[in-house]
Design goal:
It contains five helices and five strands. It has 179 residues and is of the alpha+beta class. It folds into two domains: 105 residues, Alpha-Beta Plaits, CATH 3.30.70; 57 residues. It is flat. The termini are far apart.
Length: 179
């Protein structure tokens, strides 16, 4: 009986969240290691200590497969279902954790964005790209080259703020209302 109640509660939370712009997604993650015993605990850690704690995540559940050996390397996979409060955290998690695949379960037909939401998502993508590039540069460049890149990134951030400021001024009419 409690399983049925819990299932109804999950369905209610899911329906309410989807109605407010949430997204239900099934992720497919995989991990590989030469040590079979490390894989399932690593996948459990990914779910419990990382994915569940990400901002914008409403809930997480899933299953983890038994590791299989091929060529001296063990592989396991996890099928993880996550409910997000909106689209932006889904984008962040997709970039940060690089799933092998994903499937949007709900909403089934379309996802709509307000212009400011889409702009925010795209700026987040830009930041993720910059952070990733910075990480690569730090590992591969000499310190003096890295300093030049750092300055270029700071200039780019200032330029972005300027563009956004100009956009907000342009969008506001003389009365301060949106055109």
């Amino acid at each position: 009986m409690s399983d049925c109640l819990a299932k109804n509660d999950v369905e209610k939370v899911t329906d309410e969240t989807i109605a407010k712009g949430g997204i239900l997604v099934r992720f497919y993650f995989d991990m590989q290691d030469k040590d079979k015993e490390k894989l399932q605990p690593l996948m459990v850690n990914l779910v419990n200590e990382q994915l569940m704690k990400e901002p914008g995540v409403v809930y997480v559940y899933g299953s983890i497969e038994e590791p299989l050996e091929k060529g001296g390397v063990y592989t396991t996979s996890g099928v993880i279902t996550m409910l997000f409060s909106n689209f932006a955290p889904l984008v962040g998690i997709s970039f940060k954790y690089a799933p092998a695949g994903l499937e949007i379960l709900r909403p089934e037909k379309e996802v709509r964005f307000r212009t400011n939401e889409l702009q925010s998502i795209l700026m987040d993508l830009s930041q993720i790209s910059m952070d990733y590039s910075k990480f690569i540069f730090e590992k591969m460049l000499k310190p003096e080259d890295m300093e030049n890149i750092r300055k270029q990134m700071e200039n780019r951030a200032e330029l972005s703020k300027k563009f956004l400021g100009n956009r907000e001024k342009k969008d506001s009419g003389p009365s301060g209302s949106q055109k």
